[in-house]
Q: What sequence folds into this?
């Protein structure tokens, strides 16, 4: 087989393509490195059996992935990772709220408004606090607790006015300096990852008493789980860096719900952020991709029957095993 791979490298211990390439080569397959940002990307894919690209939430990647991946999968007929069922809703909290609700998955109550008047009327009678989210953002960025109607009105006015790039209240001049400092530190050549958000507002039910969330990652018939503790003095856990991989902290209900979501949505890979409402798990957000070393830190995984399999595993190994199995199924 010939598998095309778009390189990725998002920091120390956070690159999938080198592991994919090594595992495929060891299995006797050919790896073709491609460049999705070139005009001849479709020609680069000629003669390939599969295509893999771990794209993240940066806008310059999103605009390529949402246009290219459906064509590669549906028109060229290649086996793709991630496929459309897995990634079309990636880093889109509005799409995810509609999708999960329609699929019958338990989620916090969510309100999305595209009309300013309707949003203001809702804010006047809402029960506070509520969580305000922008549709994109990772690691708890663009997520904020709103404690009163006046605060909700403030953000509604801004979002239906000039719009916002972030929910951070840092003064614009200082934020501008921070963005440029980050760009210089990371030596980024691509457009900055901030986008303008306007003409919508998304509020979500606040679930008190959650000092942590449970992250369960499903890859095929494998579930990896760990608990993420909140930042000090904060209600958010994502991006805190404080986590525990003790299997006993992960409830069977959380693992069952995660497998249910993966099966219902037909995903190749999905990481779920689970919170508790009245003692039962609900899905806050989902993502097809994640930091690999955190999954690898898990001492084992559960299968779909909730049997425990000890031993660490790189998520890329699971992804390659599943990809090769799908390719073998397609081979006459």
A:
């Amino acid at each position: 087989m010939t598998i095309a791979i778009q390189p990725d490298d998002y920091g120390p211990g956070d690159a999938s393509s080198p592991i994919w390439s090594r595992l495929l080569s060891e299995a006797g397959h050919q790896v073709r490195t491609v460049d999705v940002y070139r005009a001849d990307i479709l020609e680069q894919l000629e003669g390939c059996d599969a295509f893999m690209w771990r794209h993240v939430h940066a806008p310059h990647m999103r605009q390529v992935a949402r246009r290219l991946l459906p064509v590669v999968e549906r028109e060229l007929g290649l086996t793709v990772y991630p496929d459309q069922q897995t990634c079309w809703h990636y880093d889109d909290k509005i799409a995810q709220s509609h999708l999960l609700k329609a699929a019958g998955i338990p989620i916090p109550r969510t309100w999305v408004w595209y009309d300013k008047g309707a949003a203001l009327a809702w804010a006047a009678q809402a029960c506070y606090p509520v969580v305000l989210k922008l549709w994109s953002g990772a690691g708890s960025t663009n997520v904020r607790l709103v404690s009163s109607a006046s605060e909700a009105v403030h953000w509604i006015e801004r979002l239906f006015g000039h719009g916002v790039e972030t929910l951070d209240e840092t003064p614009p001049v200082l934020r501008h300096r921070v963005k440029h400092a980050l760009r210089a530190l990371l030596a980024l050549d691509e457009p900055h990852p901030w986008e303008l958000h306007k003409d919508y507002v998304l509020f979500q039910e606040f679930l008190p008493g959650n000092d942590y969330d449970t992250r369960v990652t499903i890859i095929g018939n494998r579930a990896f789980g760990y608990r993420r503790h909140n930042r000090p003095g904060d209600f958010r856990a994502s991006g805190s860096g404080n986590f525990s991989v003790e299997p006993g902290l992960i409830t069977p209900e959380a693992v069952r719900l995660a497998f249910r979501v993966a099966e219902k949505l037909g995903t190749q890979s999905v990481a779920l952020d689970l919170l508790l409402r009245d003692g039962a798990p609900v899905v806050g957000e989902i993502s097809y991709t994640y930091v690999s070393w955190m999954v690898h830190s898990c001492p084992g995984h559960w299968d779909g029957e909730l049997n425990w399999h000890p031993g660490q595993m790189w998520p890329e190994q699971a992804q390659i095993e599943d990809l090769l199995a799908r390719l073998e199924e397609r081979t006459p």
